[in-house]
Amino acid sequence: MGNIRIKWVTGAALATIVAGLLVLGVINYFRGYAHAEVNQAGNLQKNQPENLTVEKEQSTKLVQVDKDTKAEMEWMRKHQMEAKKNEKQKETKTATEDSKPEAKPANENTKPAATPTKENTKPETKPTPTQENTKPTTTPIEEKIEPTDAGKKTVYLTFDDGPQVFSKEIIALLEQYQFKATFFMLEGNIKRYPDAVNLMVDTGNAIGIHGVSHDSKQFYASATSVLAELNQTRQTIKAITGLDIFLMRTPYGSKPGMKDAYKQIVFDEGYQMWDWTIDSKDWFYKDARLVSSVIKQIEEKTKKNEPLVILLHERRETLEQLPSLLDYLSEHNFDCKVIDGTMNPIHF
Ligand SMILES: [Zn+2]
Predict the structure, then answer these.
(1) How far away, in angstroms, is 137 Cα from ligand 1 center?
(2) Which residues lie at CB < 5 A from ion ligand 1?
(3) CATH architecture of 102-336
(4) Is residue 135 predicted with pLDDT exceeding 60?
(5) What is the dihedral of CA 252, 256, 260, 261, to 10 degrees?
(6) Alpha-carbon distance 139 to 137, whole Å?
(7) Cα separation of 233 and 269, whole Å?
(8) Hey, which of 25, 45, 138, 309 has its CA 20 to 30 A from 87?
């Protein structure tokens, strides 16, 4: 009997332990599950803002990428245009095997910065010419470079591609220094800003022809096309100012476009072709570098006593930099004068 009792007690104890373990197991299982859920929920909550941030970052990146792409595309577009421009110039170079071996760097702006703000096509004619420019007896420019009695050295400022809306400002600035310049102008712009052309003449600045198309292929296509563009511009200038002008500069300079045969024909017509000796590359620099580059070239040329014919363009950025160039010239005892019909033209 005692044995049976012991067995029963032991059995009951074991059963209790097993039951206890089972209960613990079940509790643990559920606790674990519940914990897992909490974790999941916690993670979810925690992940929510993270995901948003990531998304936000991603979208910001996308916007940035989009901007970058646009900038890249814009750069590419410009680059391609530049490449095309160079290609064009190369084509012209190879097309016309012109004499001198040393190649000049790319010369001018291909874009004849246009954008007219006011249309004024009706030209006022001016019958009394203030500027004579016919059949000159030329004197070598070198004589004019030599210091004058006042010890001043002469510089010839030339502005191409105008007139422009701000031609007046350029002229006013020159007036402040009592300097004069020569403006080689495009026919379309002459028609757009006839008042500017008359102002140039009235203020004692010189005017010259720069053609119609400003497209090297079109302009230099033949002797006929060259002459036609020069004559058309000359007629327009005559209608506006009453002056018969023969000073001219061909687009991008005469080299290599102007073949000897073309030169012969335009010279026979009485045209005086001017290139330059100092290229500001203002269309490229667009900032203070255009001034420092010009000053450097002036110093080099002055040492060798070479003529100083400076190529500038009627551009907003050039106007902005002009005071510092004029300051330099004024402080270094230079005088800026017009190119006139009595001078022996300088060309490449
Ligand atoms: Zn030009």
Answers:
(1) 27
(2) 108, 160-161
(3) Alpha-Beta Barrel (3.20)
(4) no
(5) -70
(6) 7
(7) 14
(8) 309
Residue position matching structure tokens 């702006």: 109
| CA separation for the pair 141, 344 (Å, rounded) | 6
* Neighbour-count burial of 174, counting CB atoms closer than 10 A to its CB (0-12 exposed, 13-18 middle, 19+ buried): buried
List the one residue out of 250, 313, 281, 232 whose CA is nearest residue 96.
Answer: 250
Cα–ligand 1 centroid distance for 275 (angstroms): 11
**Contact between 86 and 106 (Cβ < 8 Å):** yes
Looking only at the bridges linking them, the beta strands covering 272-273 and 278-279 are unpaired
| 3-class SS of residue 232 | helix
How does DSSP classify residue 105? P
Residue 209 three-state SS: strand
Question: Identity (one letter) of the amino acid at 307?
Answer: P
**Residue 223 Cα to ligand 1 middle (Å):** 19
DSSP state of 252: T
Distance 162 CA to ligand 1 centre (A): 9
Q: Please tell me whether residue 121 adopts helix, strand or coil conformation.
A: coil
The domain spans of the chain are: 1-95, 102-336
